[in-house]
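Below is the record:
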Amino acid sequence: MSERAVLVCASANPDKVAEIATILGDAVSLLPRPDDVPDVEEDAPTLVGNARLKAAAICDATGKPAVADDTGLEVDALGGDPGVRSARYAGEGVTYADNVAKLLAELERAGATTPAERTARFRTVALVKWPGGRETVAEGVVEGVIAPAPAGAAGFGYDPVFVPDGGDGRTFAEMSADEKHAISHRGRAFRALRAAIEA
């Protein structure tokens, strides 16, 4: 790639945008989502489907290549839930803490008390929609377990209760941003996406 790709970020979540910008680094010039583009209803049954809906809407609205992602937390004891509904697990317009509280309550209801019974993974699909219809897609996955109670003040979403494999027993919320990005689902997905774009 002779010059940096310019991508419009489809996400309006400032926490997520900051992470994406950090992970992509100098490889990509990331433009903010225009204020006049309405929210996209994320009603696809898969992560890649939701990422495609968001990226396509921004690409169509701006005429520029757009990048979007969708992330799901898959908890084995809950049959893979919350999965594609992770951001809305406790309902529409809820807080991160509401979703975490519901997750812990559901695990308690399922009788999943030991780490072996609380295995889970974060999965992120990152997708660029280019004008003309071409897509670049990458996925990142990190395995781990759900902690019995939140720990740490960094990160966002389910980070306070997700203990990734290879993280010394700490939750994502107990790690520095660099430590988290090195092993996280979003870090893996966007590094793979960056490599695909540069190729």
Observations:
- Strands lie at 5-9, 28-31, 66-75, 82-83, 119-129, 135-146, 162-164.
- The mean pLDDT is 93.
